[in-house]
Amino acid sequence: MISLPRPIAAGRDRVFSWRDRRLADPRHSERVAATLGIALGVCFFVCFLTGLLSHLIQHPPSWFTYTSRPAGLFRLTQGVHVATGIASVPLLFAKLWSVFPRLFQWPLFKDPLHLLERLSLLPLVGGSIFLLVTGVANIELWYPWVFFFPAGHYAVAWVTMGALVIHIAAKIRITRRALGRPERSVVEAPVHTAGRRRFLGLAATGSAALVAVTIGQTVSPLKRLGLLAPRHPDVGVQNFPVNKTAIEAGVTKSSKDPAFRLTVERGGKTLRAFTLDEVTALTPHEAELPIACVEGWSASKRWNGVALRHILIAAGVTDLDSIEVGVESLQRGGRYRKSIVNHTQLADHDTMLATHVDGEVLAPDHGFPLRLIAPARPGVLQTKWVTKLVVR
Question: What are phi and psi of 181, to 5 degrees?
């Protein structure tokens, strides 16, 4: 009697035959996966730490007090955050491609530790793709979702990094073994080495190229290379970018109204209401400070205006070392129409309400008549169209 092969077994054999052929390719080796994993892990950890700092600055808890120096600190950390995020894109796809055949291994897990490692792949891979897709969309100011980007991005980052720590703990022995001296035959060594090097070189080149063609929005000497940079630091109204125009913010005639007043309040009472002329008559101040936005672009500009401390002193506020100041905008709505200047930033004389930039009166799109500008502060917190200071 002739026995026929069972269809399911034949299909399974084809799957494993495909997997075995793939695993024999040096580009799918454990050594390649380990190398890409280390590079991707470094990018992710640096990106996570700088993103955590950015979140704390924008949404500070009671225990966190952000500094004002060095003036370019946020410009540096956010530039690194965006650069490492962009660098991770080709590295992630190269890593996924290198380990793809291993997803079809059988049995699905060998022991509890292996099961934990397999389960961690769901939040790790899903979270990584979510972070990179939403991060790139945010750089482009494109929001095709309904959730608040910083909150969603922040929450998923913690889940992803937790899964990454579990994955590293489960894979550390394999990684050490893979990166140790491999056992190769004399015939296989040149072929495997060349295949690995070409693939890893392609991944590294793609990562470096993406960074190079976007980093010009942060690093001015490289701006000519910024072919894919969403914004250039010297392009826009008054030669630097605008993220939200006066029209988009609903600030049009009110910013040019002769009745404009800058009010200083404390405890629900108005201490003083300054006209624009009265503000500009106070001791003038000038400083060269960067404006750096969370999307990654930054530009150094020379600002003229009045130190925030001097305005408060003129309004009768004397306890400057123990207060913080709420800064409110003419903007009709939005999450960032208000911001807080803590006592450390208030103590810095370069924290000012600017009236001019690079010798020109502020354009409406850049916050005319008054704009907050302070060292080491995210652009989203450099409140435009300032109309009220609330002492707390």
Answer: -70, 115
Q: Tokens 């913080």 belong to which residue?
A: 324
In 3D space, the residue among 304, 305, 244, 253 whose CA is nearest the CA of residue 279 turns out to be 305
Per-residue pLDDT of the chain (392 residues; tens, 9 = 90+): 444 444 444 555 554 565 555 556 667 778 888 899 999 999 999 999 999 999 999 999 989 999 999 999 999 999 999 999 999 999 999 999 888 777 777 777 777 777 887 888 899 999 999 999 999 999 888 899 999 999 999 999 999 999 999 888 888 888 888 887 654 443 445 556 677 788 889 999 999 999 988 888 877 777 777 777 788 888 889 999 998 899 999 898 766 678 899 999 999 999 999 999 999 999 999 999 999 998 888 999 999 999 999 999 999 999 998 899 999 999 988 889 999 999 999 999 999 999 999 999 999 999 999 999 999 999 999 999 999 999 99
Look-up of token digits 């793609």: 206
Which two structure tokens, joined as six digits, stand for 5?
């092969």
Q: How does strand 298-307 pair with strand 262-266?
A: unpaired
Structure token digits, residue 23: 């695993």
Let me know: does 100 contact 314? Beta carbons within 8 Å.
no
